[in-house]
Amino acid sequence: MLSLAFICLSCFLNLVGSISKHPSVLVVSFDAFRYDFLNKSATPNLYALSQIGVRADYIRNIFPTKTFPNHFSIGTGVYAEDHGVLANHVFYNNRSHGYSYDLFHYNDDVVPIWTLNEKAGQGRHSGSMMWPGGEFAYQGVTPTHAVRYDQSFDWNKRVDVAISWFLNETAPANLVMLYFEEPDFIGHRHGVDDPLFRDEIRHCDRTAKYLQDQLEAHNLHDKVNVFLLSDHGMVSVAQDRIIDLNKFANFSRCDVVGTSPVMQISALASLDPFTKRCKFSWNVKETGNSKIKSANGENLHTKTVSLHLRVPNELNLQYFS
Ligand SMILES: [Zn+2]
Annotated catalytic residue: which of 67, 115, 207, 259? Predict the structure, then answer.
């Protein structure tokens, strides 16, 4: 799926007088904010920003279309097959890995931009406000400023703290990554056509306005380059586009890790090879996240990923014809 709203404000302004002596950048992500959620009536503030800044028609997310892989691709500039964050939850080395240091350190040669900024020295400092993977050390270097993800943390306060990092007297940031988990969460629960989803889009819009106001209040609006973007889009899935695997197979005693568009199903490690083949069963809870998209794309993607020679062996991804 193509995404997203993508706006660059004041990219070419004179940065002389910035709190940091280096050009300053703020990257803001609204999770799953699809490119066409931005319009004049639903998001007047974002729309107004798009009129005074630069707006791309879309940016193309990577596959898998999940939050952690895409945010780490934004941070590193490489695909998941290189940075190794293949999903929000991944099964390898006989266990499931969720959000963790391990998940973001499959390939220690890949270093995100906020770490490269710190390593460049000469007064460069980075900040991560809940950006996926942002608070970890890479090659031994952590961002000067970092807050781990906390859903209860008020959005306007996230903005306040992020702006305070640019103004820090001893270690002013010249790069800050700022993350908001909506409208993804609401969208998964209610779909993109629900009134609650539209309310959340307005919430994002108000937050963008608050951010703009606070930048101006602190005289940073002409000193900080602001990128507003997202990690992927989102669409509602119709019932007739869902494949119920119970109709096709009888699985039992298996581990299921992840949600759409890619799930990992493996036999429990305790089962012997023969039993693995005989007792698979599918027992996915009927939650909003566990819907399996039908579609042409699913088989295509499965085949492509499974056959890819660079998929690590630890993932146990194999292609069965
Ligand atoms: Zn996401």
Answer: 67
Q: Which of 165, 141, 155, 150 is nearest to 25 (CA)?
A: 165
Ligand 1 centroid from CA 279, angstroms: 34
Query: Catalytic: 207?
Result: no
User: b or e along 192-214 (b: 16 or more beta carbons within 10 Å of the residue's beta carbon)?
Assistant: beeeebbebbebbbbbbbebbeb
What is the per-residue pLDDT for 240?
85
Question: pTM above 0.85?
Answer: no
- What residues have CB less than 8 Å from 304, skipping those under 6 apart? none
71 Cα to the center of ligand 1, angstroms: 8
- Whole-number Å distance, alpha carbon 297 to ligand 1 midpoint, is 19
Residue 283 burial by Cβ neighbours in a 10 Å radius (0-12, 13-18, 19+): exposed
Range of lowest pLDDT (16-25, 152-161, 237-246, 296-305): 296-305
Q: Which amino acid is at 55?
A: R
Own/partner long-range contacts of 37-42 (Cβ < 8 Å, ≥24 apart): 37/5, 37/183, 37/201, 38/5, 42/198, 42/201, 42/202, 42/205
Number of neighbouring beta carbons within 10 Å of residue 305: 18
- Determine whether 165 is exposed, middle or buried from the number of CB atoms within 10 Å of its CB (0-12, 13-18, 19+): buried
CA 308 to chain centre: 23
Residue 118, H or E segment: helix 113-120
Ranges of H-type helices in 127-194: 155-166, 184-190
